[in-house]
């Protein structure tokens, strides 16, 4: 059974149809990349999977259950969501932010967590490269450091589905690698990971499959090398590969 799925799901925002009859699923053990140009609907897919974007048609499922029928706590036990925006409206210690990842199991600040939950939070902080930041306030961190703190929160949930929006954005090269490696490891542990990614080289390196969105529809859903062919790159992204490396507009 898939950890997360959309079945003919449509989403309308501000009177515009931003997802149109999208069907996709993520199975245990898979790292699925979600690619597509700006505004294609990647974040909306992740929000829909997490039960955060109301559907105008179709269904979103977590663990085979319609998300509409799940309470917020039940949803939190089935899916962890890493938002694209990493801003925080208040000053919170990094370890308390990571402790929020346990909220669906044990809603408490870091020091009041049970020992087992604290160990999970410490492990998540270490794997997100945020252990050294644990006692610092979030609003006093750089953008990349904040991103690592938020990744720790998502990892601490240990949810079957990890839906992450641009997990490597703002990270330096080493931390980009480590963030992708940790998501790969989550999938290898049997969790289902779906990650919105702009870096198509990272998609090829890390993902088992890529779902390409174009104007709210699925343009491709296949292994990265098969999906990201010259025709699709030109049609959807408006680019071609340069022989010297990288991409250029067609
Ligand atoms: N609250 C909103 N009201 C109206 N339109 C919205 C709203 N939120 C998003 N949209 C539109 O929905 C479409 C899909 O947005 P979404 O954030 O899912 O795209 P994306 O693929 O994640 O883009 P990006 O690569 O820029 O992050 C865009 O055209 C966007 O302008």
TrEMBL record:
It comes from the Bacteria. Residues 1-240 form the ABC transporter domain. Pfam families: ABC_tran. The keyword ATP-binding applies. The keyword Transmembrane does not apply. GO terms for molecular function: ATP binding; ATP hydrolysis activity. Keywords: ATP-binding, Nucleotide-binding, Translocase, Transport. Part of the ABC transporter complex HmuTUV involved in hemin import. Responsible for energy coupling to the transport system. This is ABC transporter ATP-binding protein. It comes from Alkalicaulis satelles.
């Amino acid at each position: 059974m898939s950890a997360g799925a959309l079945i003919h799901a449509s989403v309308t925002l501000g009177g515009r149809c931003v997802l149109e009859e999208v069907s996709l699923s993520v199975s245990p053990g898979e790292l699925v990349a979600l690619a597509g140009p700006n505004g294609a609907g990647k974040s909306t897919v992740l929000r829909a999977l997490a039960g955060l974007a109301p559907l105008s048609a179709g269904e979103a499922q977590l663990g085979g259950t319609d998300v509409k029928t799940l309470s917020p706590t039940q949803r939190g036990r089935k899916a962890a969501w890493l938002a694209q925006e990493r801003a925080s409206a208040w000053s919170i210690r990094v370890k308390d932010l990571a402790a929020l990842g346990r909220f669906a199991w044990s809603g408490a600040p870091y020091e009041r967590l049970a020992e087992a939950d604290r160990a999970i939070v410490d492990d998540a902080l270490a794997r997100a490269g945020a252990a050294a930041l644990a006692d610092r306030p979030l609003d006093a961190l750089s953008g990349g450091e904040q991103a690592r703190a938020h990744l720790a929160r998502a990892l601490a949930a240990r949810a079957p589905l990890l839906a992450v929006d641009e997990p490597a954005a703002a990270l330096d090269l080493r931390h980009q690698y480590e963030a992708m490696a940790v998501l790969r490891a989550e999938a290898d542990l049997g969790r289902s990971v779906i990650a919105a990614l702009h870096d198509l080289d990272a998609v090829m390196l890390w993902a088992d499959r890529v779902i390409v969105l174009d104007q709210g529809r699925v343009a491709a859903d296949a292994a990265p090398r098969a999906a990201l062919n010259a025709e699709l790159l030109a049609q959807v992204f408006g680019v071609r590969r340069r022989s010297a490396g990288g991409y250029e507009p067609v």
